[in-house]
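Instructor's aside before we start: the two examples that follow are unrelated to each other. I chose them only because their records fit on one page, so don't look for a connection. First example below.
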Amino acid sequence: MLNARLSGMTDYPFTRLAGLLGKVPPYAGRPPLNLAVGEPQSPPPHIIADTLARHAADWGRYPPICGTPDFRAAVAGWLSRRYNLPAGAIDPDRSILPVQGTREALFQIATVAGAHLGRDDAVVLFPNTSYATYAAAGHLAGAQAIPLSARREDGFLPYLEQLDPELLERTALLYLCTPSNPEGAVADLDYLKKAIALARQYDFVLAVDECYAEIWDEAPPPGTLQAAIALDVDGDDDPFANIIVFHSLSKRSSAAGLRSGFVAGDYRIIALMQRLRTYSSSAPPLPIMAASAALWLDEAHAAEIRDLYRAKLDLAEKALDGVGAFYRPAGGFFLWLEVGNGEELALRLWRDAGIRVLPGRYLGRADADGINPGDRFIRIALVHDDAILAPALSRVAELLKSGGH
């Protein structure tokens, strides 16, 4: 009677975390602090409130699923500037679609990529460890969801050269994330070109989650559309064939509650995504699309927010350098600390410091050797003000040095 695939899924990572900590009282010496969730705490730009106020009359109108011309033009302009795309490379009317945040769209792409899902042995590939939505989407679309090793020695990115051709023949969809969640690893242009070439050779969809692309330390991460332009597409009239990328304002603009993002890429994939969303979803409301367009047109606030995260990385490096196998991520705002046993340390941090972190195993799956690569890690979100974050990181360091692992 009920969907067996849905019923058989593991709980969402934060549901599992609640189960882990639920029977353990937090440290009573200070208010609990949540460093588990990547929810920006810095105030959003005034652009949002100002634009929403100007467009208040539009709250009563249904938004078109394809978005407004102003929204699509703003996104096309940002993509062109950010990734140095040639003039006219991105078609705002065929290659861009607004979405309500990107989690929903990341889930839906597994359904859209169903050209190969009629096969009983079709697969969806995703990095191990990664955002939990990737595996769930493949599973519920009827494919076999297969994690790809993304270990420290491979730069925390799947090692594409070792993928079995027989596996690639069965692949409907490959998810990648750059900068990656949770590790903050950045795929360079050569890596992205290899992924695109595989997608075209084996005719699967390459879905690249670039939601953290604007939170970077030393250099802006390259983009998948940028890599595609550098490749010969063998006469295809779409330079972004087989590719779809995902972007959001949640991190770039500290606007998680706006629930505004977009997908861009292969116009055939976009057309199918639009058809699916016409039946199953809705576009962001018109005032939100207007505010989103204004945000994509403005670089100043994004640079200020990026500087805030750099300062948080400075705090983390000062507190944790040499502790918990600390490294400074190239992108994103997560720390990925190797601590021995992630669940045990998460429990101790909650009990002895009132700090909530996410055990890495909740973002990973057991590989072919039966080992979950996230077991030894915790993920810490650097999202709070420095005055809150600095003492919390010092407390994490103290527990690690005292044998917290």
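Example two begins here.
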Amino acid sequence: MTENQLQRSRLVVRSSFFLLFLLAPVLNIFRFDLTTTNFVIFNQVLSFGMTTEWILASDYWDTGFRILAYFILPLFITVISGIYIFYKWGRLYCGWLCPHFSVVEYVNDLMDRRTGSVTLWENSKFSKERQAKRNKIIDWLVIVGVSVTIAFLWALGLLSYLLPPIPLYTDLIHFEVDLYPTIFLVAATTVFTIDFVLARHLFCKYGCAFGLMQSLFWMMNSKAMLVKFERDRAKACQSCDKDCEEACPMRLPVRSFKRAKFTCTQCAQCISACQEVQKDNPAGSLLGWSEGEKTRHSSLIPVKTIDPKKGHNDS
């Protein structure tokens, strides 16, 4: 699979998951109904089959086994499976599924096309002449407008996980939403808009506890998958304008060591960018996925090695 095909596949996967994130409550795939204080999973109330009649006819052992089989065991398997994925592949969820990271990439692309940079503190790649021809007010109205729209969809989607979705949408269409849901929608839309416009990838790097947990397990594994840079061919980078680092949604030094890429999402945008730059180079891209190669730079704590010829430590 080429990198372009990989990025198209990733776009399909994360877009599908984003739709699932918005539609799961509507389809009763998963939600918590505050009005009845019940979880709903695949259109079934999460009661473990423990109806009043069943409880009256069962003893403590039956009840304990039912809870173990229907709740504790599936939860244990899910957690262990997640830890294995994080340990082996890192933030795979972030780069391929996370709805927030999908917004990060989309707004990054929009800002790049509109302003020539993906953050407020980066210099625009547009020439002064091109910047002068653009209407900055219109550009920012588009960026903020799109961000507000996505933020509202996020807020509405999250609220539908807590309140019955169809009545909520019906009240919204008729402008009859109650006070507290309205407060939630306004507050959440405001917070998400600020995040999407100003701090989207900073939240991924420093504010997401789930992302941090993935990174910690990934860093524990010195043989985990990572984007590797072929340092012996570094001269080929002389003609490049750091396209790989500009392509990285997290703004990471992709050619550096693993510890500097603690929050890498395995999105492979940097690999795609390098492949495009080096398309005429017979040796190919300088960046590529690598796993199974243990080096002193591939774990959280630097490993000291001893050179028998020199007789001293090199860390």
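Residues 3-46+90-213 form one domain.
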